[in-house]
Amino acid sequence: MKMIKIDIKNLFLGLIFLGGASFMHAQTTQTDATATAQTQTNPTIDGLKKQIETNPKDTEALAKLAGAYQEGSDWPNAIETWKKISALLPDWAPSYYSQAYAYQANKDDANAKTAYEKYIATVKPEEVEANKKNLAYAYFYVAFSEQKSDPAKAKEHIAKSIQYDPTNQDAVKLSQALNS
After folding, report:
1. What is the C-alpha to C-alpha distance for residues 111 and 100, in angstroms, rounded to an integer?
2. Phi, psi of 128 (to 5 degrees)
3. How many other C-beta atoms are found inside a 10 Å radius of the C-beta of residue 35?
4. To pair with 51 at 20 to 30 A between CA atoms, which of 18, 105, 142, 172?
């Protein structure tokens, strides 16, 4: 039986080189995919942008644009567009709810909580009935966010959440945890 002599040092360096080449390929591939995604155009978004250029206060077009960004999971642009709508229509609660949703999807919990609180504060008494599910979720999210920092406030919020939607099992579980 013939013994094969292997230079361990050269083998190790070769494996490092191959691993580095694979890493570089993965990095290049990811960058290329990102660049491709950014250069792709969406005719709906492009058309809405043009419409908004001619009338920057067209809240209907802005809402459609924000929705289109959300459909494409472009959370930063969705957030910025919802913020523009909130500035133009500060009493329109759905813009704050949508803003909170986009922040939440973008993993920005602090701003999501703030936007949900603004939504809760902006819903008019005559709109409560039509917004019960959204209010229940907003209160749940705020309670969940505050459960460690302010348990008393979290209990108030979770009670409101359950008041608006007693079928939400996550809210019921959080309430039980807070009150045990």
Report:
1. 7
2. -60, -50
3. 10
4. 105
